[in-house]
Amino acid sequence: MAPKHEFEHEVKLDVEARVRQGVKAVLEEVLQDEMTQHLEAGYRELTPTRRGERNGYYQRNLITPAGKIERLEVPRDREGEFVTEVFERYKRMTGDVEEAILKMYLSGISVRKIAGVTDALSKVRIGKDAVSRIASRLEEQQKEWRECSLEKKYPYLYLDATYLKVRWGARVTSMALLAAVGVDEEGFREVLGVEVAGSEKEAAYTSLLRDLIDRGLSGVRLAVSDDHEGIKAAVAGELPGAEWQRCTVHFQRNVLSHVPSSSMSEVAEDLSAIFKVSRHKTAEALAEEFVSLYEKSYPKAVSIFKAGLCDALTYLSYPGTHHARIRSTNMLERLFKEVKRRTTRVVGVFPNERSASTLATEIVLRSSEEWALRRYLTMDALQGAQKPNPQLSRH
């Protein structure tokens, strides 16, 4: 008599096989129904609208959440026009497994271990060649994206960076992930560039901007970023006709960092009120009140406020309907938060710069896919506004 665990294993295998057979039968029924709809007639059915003839079957395998379905019978039509949607649906369903494979590969896990994990996930062992194909295809797609021409004009350009942990030889170091997002003349957002650099120095941002300009970046009227000297210098050098907007969120944080927690709420309320008005005169009047209220109590905070206010109010020269979205880099902050969420827990420390760049770029691009479906700004007001004078640009 076979041991109990062997019997249980055999039962489990038998159940899995029967589940796969059941899935196979259902899929073949769906394929037949798709063919009927395509021909507008059932098997050997004569109808006035019939569009062709069936022409037997061909067999193919399909990876599904139930495991690998073998010798699935796919109907053919005589004209060769029938295309099923079944495989595309299952491709989308198994996309999570492919993404898991990619993350494991980029985080330095051996292909042998990946094969074991995917075997447990999908009942299909993914070998070394398949893992390499997945990674190579992704890198090739990103290469094409990085080299594509920028044929539209982008009046607004957002620049920012976050940091990722990357193994560099025997030690772990932080590398900057630089990103540039543009808003085009029709008001749609688009990720224009993503780069990994050793730091956020001027040279890194200059390289990023020069690459974008080489690809055709033009029409930038306002660059939005935090108060980073490297960004400001790069914008001044590479985009001399553009104005610079200091992120008001970062600016307020800088001011409030010199205010005691006991007074933080009150000061923050008065500070934020300045950036809720739509006219320069009103903002300046509120700013004067802020200085008179807090200059004696919090001189360091007010000193920072006075030094940075002009650059923080640049957005007031632009259409009022745009103010809420051009006065900060919150959009990029949300993208970076998603990168951290999806990499820190899965990867932690990247094994090298290449893997950090590939995975972080893919997450940024996937997270921004929906941008193409929703207009970010209505640009009619900007098109009628006077262009800024380069001589008056503030960097």
How confident overall, as mean pLDDT?
Answer: 82
- Give the amount of beta strand, in percent: 15-25%
Spell out the helices and strands N to C: HEEHHHHEEEHEHEHHHHHHHH
- Helix proportion range: 40-55%
Major sheet strand order? 5-4-3-6-7
Q: Can you describe this structure?
A:
The chain starts with a helix and ends in a 12-residue tail after the last helix. With about 400 residues, it is an alpha/beta fold. Residues about 390-395 have low confidence and may be disordered. Helix 3 packs antiparallel against helix 4. The chain contains 15 helices and seven strands.
Write out key terms for the chains shown:
about 400 residues; alpha/beta; 5-stranded mixed β-sheet; two-stranded antiparallel sheet
Task: Summarize the topology.
Blueprint: H1 4-39, E1 54-64, E2 67-77, H2 86-93, H3 95-106, H4 111-122, H5 128-147, E3 156-168, E4 171-183, E5 189-197, H6 202-214, E6 222-225, H7 229-238, E7 243-246, H8 248-256, H9 264-274, H10 280-294, H11 299-312, H12 323-326, H13 330-344, H14 353-367, H15 380-383
Parallel strand pairs: 3-6, 6-7
Antiparallel strand pairs: 1-2, 3-4, 4-5
Helix pairs in contact: 3-4, 3-5, 6-7, 8-11, 9-10, 10-11, 13-14
